[in-house]
Automatic annotation (TrEMBL):
Designated name of the protein: Tol-Pal system protein TolB
Ranges of residues in domain TolB N-terminal: 28-129
Subcellular location field: Periplasm
Family: Belongs to the TolB family.
């Protein structure tokens, strides 16, 4: 019970220690497992034509993105290889012998306006080799018959200099979707709380690209900040602040910096989560003595109590359909995850395996529950439960995992953990086969939150 109360009150005793050295530094991933099981791809350096050094290494960004997803293994490029300008110039046997399935290549040209003309192609090696062999045998280009089915992507774009890195992530999304049939999540952001070791305003809310680049400070405070949560359009963040000497829930616009307070009830105000349509917040209040779940209509400023009784109920998370909430409750004696129907107030228990289950989130397709689970007397690990079959899979082997946040495409989870007796931020693939860890730095970073998809990212 003590551990549960520490977690639900946002205790700082198990802080996530992943500092960011500067506003230009990235939260670089250290691969720890699974890459040898991923799909082999080749991301060739783009041929560069310009008057100065290219400000962003587009190919390296794409390589990192695909590797970070856990689904791809970018192979080293042979030093003697000549980078092709067109797929007709490629020696397909080289890639076949290396076991590569697809190759990305292209060029970047700086135009007179200072923008960049990017041309690139993604080639299916097996199909391309087959088409070339048939052309050699038949004496004509069979690719016209197959509508060049070996060209998975073939694109030309003009990109402003300050958008080059973002466009590299966009290319990664297109490659990811082309090869998996699923939407990529590389043009997304993360929000997190940074705690400086010293300074007048040690608590900071920051956002960055999903990979930690383009970090931006949203606000700083003398008092603790916690629990950032994105709005569905990725334009606003709800968070908890103690700036007035007690907890309150605030909302900040990430573009204008405008922020305002939405709750200031007695005792605890915490764990805000936007509804899927952005019109409401689910939150936790203890104004009646126990921690209870409420919803707040942001337009009408109407508060509705969802849970009641003598138990502590916390960590609300909206079901993607917006008709129910999942939450953590000790009503059964120890923390487990429940679901409440917002139409009829009916409550069902979702988790039965394990001593404790908490910090639940549901994937965007509504199929899986991701949670922090204690199985046996070991530490807390991330687990995934199939909501239809009830089958539970332990995803991690780290220690004292907490604060999971699912990528918007539902394929990766970022979370806090203990690694080698120190705090770390880690990422695990939804199937549990791939893990990556962010290195320890001087500052402390906690409560990571992955943004939804947004055209404004």
């Amino acid at each position: 019970m003590k551990l549960f109360l520490l977690k639900i009150l946002g205790c700082f005793f198990l802080l996530l220690l992943i500092p960011i050295e500067s506003t230009n530094s990235a939260l670089e991933l250290i691969i720890t497992d699974g890459i040898n099981k991923a799909r082999p791809v080749a991301i060739l350096p783009l041929n560069w034509t310009g008057s100065s050094k290219l400000p962003q290494d587009v190919s390296s960004i794409i390589t990192a993105d695909l590797q970070n997803s856990g689904k791809f293994n970018p192979i080293p490029i042979p030093k003697i290889l000549k980078i092709p300008d067109f797929e007709s110039d490629m020696d397909f046997d080289i890639w076949v012998n290396l076991g590569v399935e697809v190759v990305f290549f292209g060029s970047i040209l700086e135009n007179q306006d200072g923008n960049y003309i990017i041309k690139y192609q993604l080639v299916d090696i097996a199909r391309a080799k087959f088409n070339k062999e048939k052309k050699d045998i038949l004496g004509f280009d069979i690719r016209s018959i197959f509508n060049k089915n070996h060209l998975l992507l073939s694109t030309r774009a003009i990109v402003p200099a300050n958008q080059l890195r973002k466009y590299a992530h966009r290319i990664s999304d297109l490659i990811y979707e082309s090869l998996t049939g699923e939407k990529g999540a590389f043009v997304t952001k993360i929000a997190y709380i940074v705690v400086e070791n010293e300074g007048l305003y040690p608590y900071q809310l920051r956002i960055a690209d999903y990979d930690g680049h383009n970090e931006r400070l949203l606000l700083s405070s003398k008092q603790p900040l916690m629990s950032p949560a994105w709005s569905p359009n990725a334009k606003k963040i709800a968070y908890v602040s103690f700036q007035n000497g007690k907890s309150g829930i605030f909302i900040i616009d990430i573009y204008t910096g405008e922020h305002y307070q939405v709750t200031a009830y007695p005792r605890h105000n915490g764990a805000p989560k936007f509804s899927p349509d952005g019109t409401k917040l689910a939150l936790v209040l203890s104004k009646t003595g126990r921690l209870q779940i409420y919803t707040l209509d942001l337009k009408l400023n109407e508060l509705t109590q969802i849970t009641r009784g003598s138990s502590n109920n916390t960590e609300p998370f909206w079901h993607p359909n917006g008709n129910s909430l999942i939450f953590t409750s000790d009503r059964g004696g120890k923390p487990q995850i429940y679901q409440v129907n917002l139409t009829n107030d009916k409550i069902n228990r979702l988790t039965w395996r394990g001593i404790k289950n908490l910090s639940g989130q549901i994937t965007s397709d509504g199929k899986f529950l991701v949670m922090v689970s204690q199985i046996g007397n070991s530490g807390f690990n991330l687990a995934k439960q199939d909501l239809e079959s009830g089958v539970v899979q332990i995803l991690t082997n780290t220690f004292l995992d907490e604060s999971p946040s699912i990528s918007p495409n539902g394929n990766m989870i970022i979370y806090s953990s203990i690694y080698n007796e120190s705090n770390a931020l880690s990422i695990v693939s939804m199937d549990g086969r791939f893990t990556a860890r962010l290195p320890k730095r001087k500052q402390r970073v906690k409560s990571p939150a992955w943004s939804p998809f947004s055209h404004n990212n």
